[in-house]
Structures are given as C-alpha cells and as structure tokens.
C-alpha cells in the first residue's frame, strides 16, 4: 500500500512538473520568438538597432546637405537685390531664434555632477530637474542668446523629463553629469548664476552636487533636430 502511494505521488509530481515546464516553454516562445534562442534574439535586436542608427545618421547628414544647399541658394539670390538680402537676413534671424542653426560665440559652461556615494547620500540629480530649469530661467533673464543641455538645443518646445533612471531632453535619453552651455556676455551670465544665494549656491549647498562654472571665449551650440508642426495655431490677420 505504501509503495502504491509513493508511485502515485511520483506520478502526480511528474504531471505538475510537466505542466510547469510547458507553461515556461510557451512563455519563452512568446517572448523571444518561436525557435529563436535568447542569445539569437539579442543579436537580432542589436543588428536592428545598428541599422536604425545608420539610417538615422544618414538622414541627419542628408538634412545637413539640403540645409546647406538652401542657405547657398538664399545667399546667392540675396546678393542680386537689396530686398532679397533683407529677406535672407530676416529668415536667418528667425531660424536662429527657433534653434535651427548651429551657433558659436562667447559665453559660459556649467557642469553639474553628483558626488561619489561614499561622500554623499542625498538626492540624485534626476530627482531635482527643477534645478536645471532654474538655471535655464536665470540664463534667459541674463539675455543668453542660445542654450544647450548635454548637446541638446534648448528652445521654447524643449521638454526635460525624468524617465526611469535617466533624463530625456527633446526626446533624447541622457544622464549625469549635466553640461549646460550658453552663448552671451560671459561676465553677465556668470554673475547671474553665481550671485549670492542664487541658483548655483542652491545646487551646491542644498543639492550637494559638484558644480563647475567657467567663462569661455568660444562655445559651439548645435541646432535643434526637432521640427515642430503647428496643427492648431494660425497667424492672426490684422484688421484694417
């Protein structure tokens, strides 16, 4: 009788194990694909990512080429008459304001990094994004002509958000350290940021972060790669 119970117990355990293995097998198939091992799936995804990055880079280079051609045509036409020259100048000014032109000039750099965990156990910088926004606000008030954050051009359409353990700026993932660059009068920009009890003091003292603020003779700020479509806003026609 005891042997029969042992036999039935073994049969029952075998059935349960068989069901569990079947469920796990189906789950793996759904996750990585039928007949594809996890390592093969990882290699396939890596290959797809590389192709997507190559396509993105090729399109980006093509955009640069087309923009250079447009600028050449605009400049060539503007040299023919004064009206076209003024139109080209105004167009370039608005493209600069919109962030669609690479710029260089004097200004400041502000690098914010987190101290080592052995020295400080406080907030992470990605939890204090309001500090970055305060820096941008101060720079705008000090007449900064262009601003970038980790090589992402800051425009009126820029969003800075936390996404899991990293930061997204203009939809591009980035992380600490944060390097903010601004073109403008270096002395004015530095003074605005380093004023007593100002935003830099707050970052250093309350946030506990490492801050390096420097004046620069030449700063290069890239143009924005993000195009904004207007679906709802329309120019307001002036009434006579």
Q: How would you sum up the global shape? A: extended
Q: What percent of residues are in strands?
A: 15-25%
Adjacency order of strands in the biggest sheet: 3-2-7-1-8
Order of helices and strands: HHHEHEEEEEEHHE
Query: Biggest sheet, open or closed, and with what strands and sense?
Result: 5 strands, antiparallel
Overall mean confidence score, pLDDT: 77
Rounded to an integer in angstroms, the radius of gyration calculated over CA atoms is 28 Å
Helix content: 40-55%
Q: Unreliable segments (pLDDT under 50, ≥5 consecutive)?
A: none
Structural class: alpha+beta
The count of strands amounts to 8
In angstroms, what separates the terminal alpha carbons? 106 Å
Number of helical segments?
6
Describe this structure in words.
The protein is α+β, with helices and mostly antiparallel strands and 240 residues long. The chain starts with a helix and ends in a 19-residue tail after the last strand. The protein has six helices and eight strands; from the N terminus they run H-H-H-E-H-E-E-E-E-E-E-H-H-E. It is 49% helix and 19% strand. Helix 2 (38-78) runs antiparallel to helix 3 (82-98). It has helices at residues 2-32, 38-78, 82-98, 129-141, 186-194, 199-205, and strands at residues 103-113, 146-149, 152-153, 160-163, 166-169, 172-174, 178-183, 210-221.
């Amino acid at each position: 009788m005891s042997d029969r119970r042992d036999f039935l117990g073994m049969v029952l355990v075998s059935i349960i194990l068989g069901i569990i293995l079947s469920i796990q097998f189906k789950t793996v198939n759904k996750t990585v694909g039928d007949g594809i091992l996890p390592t093969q799936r990882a290699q396939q995804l890596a290959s797809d990512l590389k192709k997507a990055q190559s396509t993105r880079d090729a399109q980006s280079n093509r955009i640069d080429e087309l923009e250079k051609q447009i600028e050449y045509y605009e400049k060539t036409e503007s040299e023919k008459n004064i009206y076209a020259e003024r139109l080209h100048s105004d167009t370039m000014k608005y493209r600069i304001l919109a962030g669609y032109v690479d710029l260089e000039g004097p200004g400041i750099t502000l690098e914010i990094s987190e101290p080592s965990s052995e020295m400080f156990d406080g907030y992470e910088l990605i939890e204090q994004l309001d500090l970055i926004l305060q820096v941008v606000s101060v720079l705008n008030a000090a007449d900064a002509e262009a601003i970038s954050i980790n090589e992402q051009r800051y425009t009126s359409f820029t969003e800075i958000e936390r996404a899991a353990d990293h930061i997204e700026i203009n939809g591009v993932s980035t992380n600490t350290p944060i390097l903010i660059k601004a073109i403008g009068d270096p002395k004015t920009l530095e003074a605005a940021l380093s004023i007593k009890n100002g935003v830099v003091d707050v970052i250093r003292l309350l946030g506990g972060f490492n801050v390096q603020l420097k004046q620069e003779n030449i700063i290069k700020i890239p143009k924005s790669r993000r195009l904004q479509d207007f679906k709802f806003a329309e120019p307001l026609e002036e009434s006579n």
